[in-house]
Amino acid sequence: MLASEVSRAVPAALAIAASLGLPADDAVVLQNSNKLTLRLLPCDVLARVAPAADQIARFEIELARRLTEAGCPVAAVDPRVAPDVHERDGFVVTLWTYHEAVAPTEIAPPDYADALHRLHTGMRELDVPAPHFTDRVTRARRLVADRDRTPALSAADRELLGDTLDDRCRAIAERGGAEQLLHGEPHPGNVLATRHGPLFIDLETVCRGPVEFDLAHAPDEIAEHYPGVDRTLLHDCRMLVLAIIATWRWDRDDQLPDGRRLGTEWLDRIRAERVHSRPAPRNRPGSGPNGRR
Predict the structure, then answer these.
(1) N or C: at which end does the chain have fewer Cβ atoms within 10 angstroms?
(2) What is the DSSP secondary structure assignment for residue 124, as one 8-state letter?
(3) Rounded alpha-carbon distances, angstroms, from residue 29 to 3, 40, 75
(4) pTM, whole model, 2 decimals?
């Protein structure tokens, strides 16, 4: 959110909490992206604030409720208030249980993998509408093709991203893996280390696809502890995810701190992988060691 929006969003969250009987006269900004995440004090509640046009908040609240009831490791709505979406001054606000991070904050790979597996198990039991992961590929492909939105992309990098998005998406479809409801972005920034174990947050990113698509967002070692992983499919998903997130960094409107540096770094990784995986040319009969007559 822009600074002007934050200056209005914080008082809106405080006012909503106070109206529900939660003492709140201070707010600490924990994250500022498409939504504003606040720790409200002294009631110690986590508030997620978004523009009123954001229609995903109610879905996220309901999904969290159902997953919590199923025993899945997800953050829950604060039990002191009804699981609802609150509106004020052009913002929608949801109130969640605040979890103090425990040391060490880095979650051990076996615990991370077990929590993700339990989340996937619970998600398989839910029948809820969700976009397919290929919707993200389509949006990224459009961004790559739009020179006005990605003016700093060179022609070679534009082709590299477009080819990677197309090739990896096709390879995943041809692999034909089982698909289900996914978290969508279970990277370390969306999992909390709490005294109750790892808990996943930000369910607004849910989509449908193979579990390997979720694993592609997690650190590499997590897959070593996740049962039944298709390694070929996982590799394709990792490269696809890398191409998607690299594309976002070249959007002229991207506001991620240090985003352009990351975009350049990820492009270099994609380029290196494509060179490494390219089959070596075979010499024609009568050609020399360099394939030349």
Answers:
(1) C
(2) T
(3) 12, 9, 18
(4) 0.88
